[in-house]
Automatic annotation (TrEMBL):
PANTHER family: PHOSPHORIBOSYLAMINOIMIDAZOLE CARBOXYLASE-RELATED (PTHR43064), SLL1489 PROTEIN (PTHR43064:SF1). It comes from the Bacteria. Coiled coil: none annotated. It comes from Latilactobacillus curvatus. Residues 124-256 form the PurE domain. This is 1-(5-phosphoribosyl)-5-amino-4-imidazole-carboxyl ate carboxylase.
């Protein structure tokens, strides 16, 4: 059952309006900032997040059962434009699809997407660039996240420093992007190289791809954090979702500025 802070607080506010102790304008302001949740027992779904942050709550599928995910989707779809669930196995998706036939599965990204009310696509695009083919799963999580939130995305994969001429073939396309996401494992050098060649914000995503001294992505993470190229922001290891979310926020700011 949904609650607005608490039922008593909502009742008190309505009584204050009825008794003319609080104006309709003031009550509207209070309601606009109220925090609404849907308590499912196993989860307290944040229904106010889109109003508060501009994006609805995202479901992290790892560690949740298919039934729990289905319950949260059912709660969110009454309030959210688009629903995104990350880190969902094919087995969980099979169960989810039975309950939500319109739910789409992006297998490489391991994301479930339910488009309740698709958003218009941005004029500017986000470029998602990978060092290698092995980095594509994390890159797809970033790309799908950005697309769910109405962004145009261009994928430029397998252009790492081991064959740097491949990068230069796509450099104009990368430079024309409004935001660039660079996904790399091994030593993570691609983010520094791209960062030194563009004038747009760059979000670097280290991946856990690599041999022993990659240390599960720690080596790539440290390389990106210590990059001498300016304008690089680094997210956590394998966090394609975080990169796609941040890039979406930046890209939408750009479109907003163009509309003024």
């Amino acid at each position: 059952m949904s609650s607005l802070d608490t039922t008593n607080e909502l009742q008190q506010l309505l009584e204050a309006v009825a008794n003319q102790k609080v104006s309709v304008t003031e009550a509207t302001k209070q309601l606009a900032h109220a925090q609404t949740i849907d308590d499912l027992g196993f989860a307290k779904v944040d229904l106010s997040r889109q109003k508060r942050n501009g994006y609805p709550e995202v479901i992290y599928g790892a560690g949740k059962t298919a039934d729990q995910i289905i319950g949260i989707i059912g709660s969110l779809k009454r309030h959210a434009e688009n629903i995104l669930c990350t880190r969902v196995s094919p087995e969980k998706y099979a169960a989810i699809q039975e309950a939500e036939p319109t739910a789409m599965y992006c297998e490489m990204a391991q994301c479930v997407v339910l488009m309740v009310d698709p958003l218009p696509t941005t004029d500017h695009y986000i470029a998602v660039v990978t060092a290698g083919t092995s980095d594509m799963a994390v890159a797809e999580e970033a790309a799908v996240t950005a697309e769910v939130y109405g962004n145009q995305v261009k994928r430029i994969y397998d252009v790492g420093v081991a064959g740097i001429h491949r990068l230069f073939e796509h450099l104009d396309e990368i430079r024309q992007a409004q935001v660039v996401i660079v996904v790399a494992g091994m030593e993570g050098a691609l983010a520094s190289v791209v960062g030194g060649l563009i004038e747009k914000p760059l979000i670097a995503v280290p991946t856990s791809i690599g041999y022993g001294t990659n240390f599960g992505g720690l080596t790539a993470l440290m390389t990106m954090l210590n990059s001498c190229a300016s304008g690089i922001t680094v997210v956590n290891v394998d966090n394609g979702f975080g990169a796609g979310y941040s890039a979406s926020m930046i890209n939408h700011l750009s479109d907003t500025e163009d509309d003024k």
